[in-house]
Amino acid sequence: MKKVEAIIKPFKLEDVREALSAAGITGMTAIEVKGFGRQKGHTELYRGAEYVVDFLPKVKIELAVADDQLEACLEAITRAARTGKIGDGKIFVSTIDRIVRIRTNEENEAAI
User: Fold this and answer.
1) Residue 30 three-state SS
2) Contact at 8 Å (CB) between 43 and 51?
3) Which helix (H) or strand (E) holds 92?
4) Whole-angstrom Cα distance, residue 51 to residue 43?
5) Which residues of 54-72 are buried (b: 16+ CB within 10 A; e: fewer)?
6) For 51-91, what is each residue's pLDDT tens digit?
7) Which helix (DSSP H) or strand (DSSP E) does residue 53 occupy?
8) What confidence score (pLDDT) does residue 87 get?
9) For 107, which DSSP code?
10) φ, ψ for residue 52, nearest 5 deg
11) How far apart are the first and last CA of the chain?
């Protein structure tokens, strides 16, 4: 089992959700976050004063997938989140040792 964490542009969230659903992957968590990478923020003008916005709004999605679903998951996220411009985001994959569904006590892939 793998944990997939993806940082994407906020306006791409619905596209990614639909792509994951079409790939047969259900269930994910979405969190509004702020951050920056190579973009390094930008400068804005507010009431005549310039200020630097260091952290840009992003969305972090997290999901757990079976090993055999991983490639379909990564392809769906990459295809749906890509704009071709800087700041499209990153995907992190890590191994999950154990999952427990609290309601039923099911474990591992049965709990996904």
Assistant:
1) strand
2) yes
3) strand 90-95
4) 6
5) eebebbbbebbbeeebeeb
6) 666 778 899 999 999 999 999 999 999 999 999 988 899 99
7) strand 49-53
8) 85
9) B
10) -95, 130
11) 9
Tokens of 14: 């619905």
In the chain, count of helices (H) and strands (E)? 2, 6
CA 44 – CA 28 distance, rounded (Å): 33
pLDDT at 13 over 90: yes
> What would the two tokens of residue 40 be?
């390094």
Burial category of 50 from C-beta neighbours within 10 Å (exposed 0-12, middle 13-18, buried 19 and up): exposed
User: How is residue 48 written in tokens?
Assistant: 């005549």
Residues in the chain: 112
**Given pLDDT bands bounded at 50, 70 and 90, which one contains residue 49?**
confident
Other CB atoms within a 10 A radius of the CB of residue 73 amount to 24
